[in-house]
Amino acid sequence: MAYELHYWPTIQGRGKFVRLALEQAGAEYVDVARLPEDEGGGPDALMNGLQDEPLRPPFAPPYLKDGDVVVGQTAAILLYLGPRLGLVGDGEQDRIWTHQIQLTLADIVAETHDTHHPVGNSLYYKDQKTEALRKAEEFRRNRIPKYLHWFERVLMRNPAGPDHLVGDRVSYADLSLFQLVEGLRYAFPKASAGALDDTPLVTALAASVAHLPRIEAYLASDRRIPFNEQGIFRRYPELDG
């Protein structure tokens, strides 16, 4: 039975981290909301799914269905998929460490979102632009370098070598770090360039993930949704200083 991924059909967002794992594993999956409505897809199907699981409803997309199992929250979905897709180490220590890295990635993803929506999600960017400019300056100067240098240290201290965050093979954390780097390059091209110059191992990992055969094919396909100004990573030149 194919996995069912439920996420917004027009943005990369948090669903992209799950899509990358499914693509790298060559897993059979359905991106439900991207299906035509007459095939049970579309945004209505996505929203209906939030109401169809009354006992354990996911809070918001993304959520994954695997038969009777429903998992919400990106990091929890990847924790569930990791051992099933061969994208995490076999031992408990590796699994928990990979999950910890993913949770840290979730933190910077949330901070990235808050650069353009620092006051409230229900407000338009133009209604909180003054606050966004201040938030983005702090993010550029302090938060991007702090996070990327932490990932650099993780790579340096990996006993198996600096080619991966955990162990000696690709994990879902590697794929997610690639997505973070790509998103920062899109939203903050000037600020991220300097930070990535200072973190060559992070830069090298992102490049190696982009050239994994299945990821490379996915990025070139119409399954990949381009970055845009409705997702988490948004390019507002004024926020890049």
From TrEMBL:
| Domain GST C-terminal span(s) in chain numbering | 91-239
Sections of the chain in a coiled coil: none
Which residues does the UniProt record annotate as the domain GST N-terminal? 1-89
Q: Which CDD domains match?
A: GST_C_Sigma_like, GST_N_Sigma_like
In terms of InterPro entries, this protein maps to: Glutathione-S-Trfase_C-like (IPR010987), Glutathione-S-Trfase_C_sf (IPR036282), Glutathione_S-Trfase_N (IPR004045), GST_C (IPR004046), GST_superfamily (IPR050213), Thioredoxin-like_sf (IPR036249)
The source's superkingdom equals Bacteria
| Name of the protein in question | Glutathione S-transferase
Q: Which organism is it from?
A: Methylobacterium organophilum
